[in-house]
């Protein structure tokens, strides 16, 4: 799942091209009247002649003014995104989260992704400079560092193991308190 404000790079293109088996969902709090422009933006976003793969674009059913009011005046686009993602998640068994990672460009995107159960380490916020932040730490990941780790962070879906105990997360888990 990805927020609509995307920066296409060589680093994430391998992930975007679905070589590892992931499907993309584009989500925007934009108004329904902006659907054509949003879809055109995504279809025409290219780097080195490569485009994003097709995926559903989920857009707010609100009109232009209610959507602008929510996003510009109230600054709460996450209200729509959280509700929408929860509705999509409800289509799957309760013990399964269909959302593996989230990319966005605002703190509200991070809030939306956390609310639906995406692990903090799989939420990537891209600032206007193209720097990638995880947990508000800019120095942690750049596009180049994600490229080096793409198969570890986004393993091929055919090789899924239990997420809590895979080799990427095991050593990051806090040690339990032990009474001696």
Quick recap of the structure?
With 180 residues, the chain is an alpha/beta fold.
List keywords for this structure.
four-stranded mixed sheet; 9 strands; 15% strand; three-stranded parallel sheet; 180 residues; alpha/beta
Structural topology:
Elements: E1 2-3, H1 10-16, E2 26-28, H2 35-44, E3 46-47, E4 50-51, E5 57-59, H3 64-73, H4 77-89, E6 102-104, H5 107-115, E7 123-126, E8 132-134, E9 137-141, H6 143-153
Parallel strand pairs: 1-2, 2-5, 6-7
Antiparallel strand pairs: 3-4, 7-8, 8-9
Helix pairs in contact: 1-6, 4-5
Walk me through what this model shows.
This protein has 180 residues and is α/β, with parallel strands linked by helices. 33% of the residues lie in helices and 15% in strands. It has 6 helices and 9 strands. The chain has helices spanning 10-16, 35-44, 64-73, 77-89, 107-115, 143-153, and strands spanning 2-3, 26-28, 46-47, 50-51, 57-59, 102-104, 123-126, 132-134, 137-141. The strands form 3 sheets. A 4-stranded mixed beta sheet has the order 6-7-8-9. A 3-stranded parallel beta sheet has the order 1-2-5, with helices on both faces. It has a two-stranded antiparallel ribbon with strand order 3-4. Helix 1 runs parallel beside helix 6 and helix 4 runs parallel beside helix 5. The longest helix is centred in the middle third of the chain and has 13 residues, at 77-89. It is globular, with a radius of gyration of 17 Å. The model is unreliable at 1-15 (pLDDT under 50).
